[in-house]
Specification:
single chain, alpha/beta, eight-stranded mixed β-sheet, six-stranded parallel β-sheet, 17 helices, globular
Length: 412
């Protein structure tokens, strides 16, 4: 095995014991590849469901560490076992160099493990590289969150083209919504290979909300903004950089200044471009620029928001689950279901429109005050189970073997 491929001892990444997997008789093997925090959040429910059946299916979990520091807390939060950590992150690494590096690092892992299915999620460089590596080895590919389309190959960049390329490589397509399925069928994907499952982010979000407590960091910011209309902001996408981000932040500052009962909370992404732009929000008592939050803390904060303003794709999925109004800081969206559900409004590329939509949301009779319970277009929290059951079916996984029988086999 290449020296660059690190086999991680169980103690390095907290997770369930490897004992159950080692005690299995030969059965289909699924390799799950992830490298960013959204991938960990959305693949955790699938991994957890698959690992409930240790004598039916084997699981191998590969972390590329594309987002090394951001990934680890989510692996710990969702108790994901990591069997290989490729540690591929390099400072100022371009997507093409990362893709090339990942292909080289994944090759010996795929040769050694020889999985029956490689599972990737979403539209990251890790997902594209994982799918391409598996394809080159003739290994079937399952794509979680398949079929999202913005209609513009340059926005979001490079995610839109990544997801289209993965579709061409994938064997099984796990679409979150019927609209995603329709997009795949329109591109010629065999309908027998498309499965509508809902989005696994709803599974993870519901598991967080079920804990029912606030972290100390969230409690402090809630106390500081008690009695105010909380606007929670996230912005970090490449398309938002530059003048657009600066003007949007100025609009938000003016909105807070104009309304004494409004507070702005902005967990600032560590990207230097975002940090620099955020300086326009400094020195206002009702504007709180804070360090990035863990996922559990972030969901707790969103659940207490009056209004969310974001350019994040994931937040567009989370807002309907939380029943919170959302202004999407983008010109297009690959998640139009959030807009159709009545939860979200698309701002587009105009700071003037953002200003108008903020004022519209503030009105007493506004749509933002009538969200309440909505029918979540992204699922019911059972997506991980549906995907795992489909995987078992397409791989022809047999009945579970008892622990006693498995132990007897390995004691010979």
């Amino acid at each position: 095995m290449s020296a660059n491929v690190i086999t991680v001892p169980p103690r390095s990444w907290p997770g369930r014991s490897l004992l159950a997997r080692r005690m299995t008789v030969p059965c289909p093997k699924v390799m799950t590849i992830f490298g960013t925090r959204p991938e960990a959040i959305k693949l955790a429910p699938v991994i957890q469901e698959l690992e409930k059946r240790p004598f039916t299916i084997q699981t191998i979990n590969v972390a590329t560490s594309q987002h090394e520091e951001l990934l680890r807390p989510f692996v710990e939060l969702f108790n994901i076992r990591v069997d290989y950590d490729l540690r591929a992150m390099r400072r100022n690494q371009t997507p093409d160099r990362l893709c090339s590096r990942l292909l080289s690092l994944l090759n010996p892992v795929l040769i050694k493990e020889d999985p029956d299915l490689v599972l990737v999620q979403g539209d990251t460089t890790t997902a594209l590289s994982g799918a391409l590596a598996a394809y080159q080895h003739g290994i079937p590919i399952g794509h979680v969150e398949a079929g999202l389309r913005s209609g513009n190959t340059w926005s979001p960049y490079p995610e839109e083209i990544n997801r289209r390329l993965i579709t061409q490589l994938a064997t099984y397509h796990f679409a979150a919504t019927t609209l995603n399925r329709a997009s795949l069928l329109a591109e010629g994907v065999d309908e027998q290979a498309v499965f509508v499952t809902g989005n696994t982010v709803v599974d993870s979000l519901k598991s967080i909300l079920a804990r029912g407590t606030h972290a100390p960091t969230v409690e402090r910011i809630l106390n500081a903004t008690s009695g105010l209309k909380r606007v929670v902001l996230t912005t970090h996408r490449r398309e938002s950089f530059g003048q657009m981000m600066s003007e949007n932040l100025s609009v938000l500052r003016h909105f807070v200044e104009a309304h004494a009962d409004v507070a702005l909370i902005f967990p600032v992404h560590p990207n230097p471009v975002v940090v620099e732009a955020a300086s326009v929000l400094n020195d206002h008592p009702r504007i709180h620029t804070i360090e990035p939050l863990g996922y559990e803390e972030f969901i707790q904060l969103l659940s207490e928001a009056w209004l969310i303003v974001s350019d994040s794709g994931g937040v567009q999925e989370e807002a309907p689950t939380l029943g919170r109004p959302l202004l999407v800081l983008r010109e297009n969206t690959e998640r139009p279901e959030a807009v159709a559900s009545g939860v979200a409004r698309l701002v587009g590329g105009s700071p003037e429109r953002l200003a108008n939509l903020l004022e519209e949301a503030y009105r007493e009779d506004s749509w933002a005050n009538r969200i309440g319970e909505v029918s979540n277009p992204f699922g019911d929290g059972q997506s991980g189970r549906r995907i795992s059951e489909t995987i078992l079916e397409v791989l022809g996984a047999g009945k579970e073997t008892s622990v006693v029988a498995a132990s007897a086999l390995f004691s010979r």
